[in-house]
Amino acid sequence: MRILAALLWCSSAFAQTAIPVDKLIEFMRSSIPLIKQKQMTDNKLADSVKGYKLTQKLEDRVIEELQQEGLPPKTVAALRAMAAASASLPAAEIKKIAPPAPPPEEPAPSVEKQRQVLDAAREYAVAYSSSLPNFICAQSTKRYANHRLYDNVLAKLTYYEQHEKYDTITVNDRLTNAPYEKLNGSISTGEFGSMLKGIFEPQTAADFSWSSWKTVHGRKSYVFKFEVDQAHSRWEIEDRQTHTKISPAYYGFVWIDEKDNSVVEFYMKAKDLPSTFSITEAESRLYYDTVEISGMPFVLPSRAEMHLLAGRDDQKNLITFHNYQKYSADATVKFDDIAPEPPEKK
Q1: Domain map (residue ranges) of the chain
Q2: What's the pLDDT score for residue 240?
Q3: May I ask the CATH class of domain 111-337?
Q4: Does residue 5 register a pLDDT over 80?
């Protein structure tokens, strides 16, 4: 297939060569992996297409299906030009394009291996808070109401002797002394250990089951689904208007690094919320990454997402953590030098 692509590509420098639609499809299919591996550019592939003329009509559905498989935009445009030029030719007898079969899914680990992984992850999660150094960092929270950004809260987060302390610095770039816990709107805490520990500690009695394999930031990970019933739940959700608190049943997923059994991501969503409680939907997601503090690597939160739905009130917080550094009595965070935030996930 690569030889075919090379031959067709080279011949584009000469007079146009007539080819049937099925050979064009074969050429495109052989080129898509090269594009994805950056061994060929969109420009060069599009230019090579211009060296050919079709002996049959090229239908739009063929181009659309090749585009779905990964054909890049400039090459798609070149194919559309070919389709227009071939509109008066007889239609090719081509069956619906079937994309290449996906590679077979990697089988799930054995039941014994799953148990070992979960035991190691539980040990990691329970000891996580105590394994962290004392540090400070900047926490930026973009808060949305009904899909519209209404403020951005910047706070200094101090982690000292396994406790989190939040000091509000600015709201919408204006300095404020308002206590973080007293801010109007939705806030979240517990990203530095208590949320993770709450999933794994024995008292929670979470029921884990195998889900799939996934790759997160280049790290191959086991993915397990978990469920926690209301009687064992320690996840606290508060309606900040009525100061009503509940600990609901919930379920979620946890991503565990294959190499060291560290948790690289988790997601949790409340279920069976009582009808008397104003919040009807609550979910939270936390992402981890490796961060250096005083030259030592630590796995720490990089981003978090929180979503609450109460009637027509749809609230979402997108949180990023920046500028980690070792705690000392006179340590300060340079809030004017916060790293750019990553694109929001859809």
Answers
A1: 2-85, 111-337
A2: 81
A3: mainly beta
A4: no
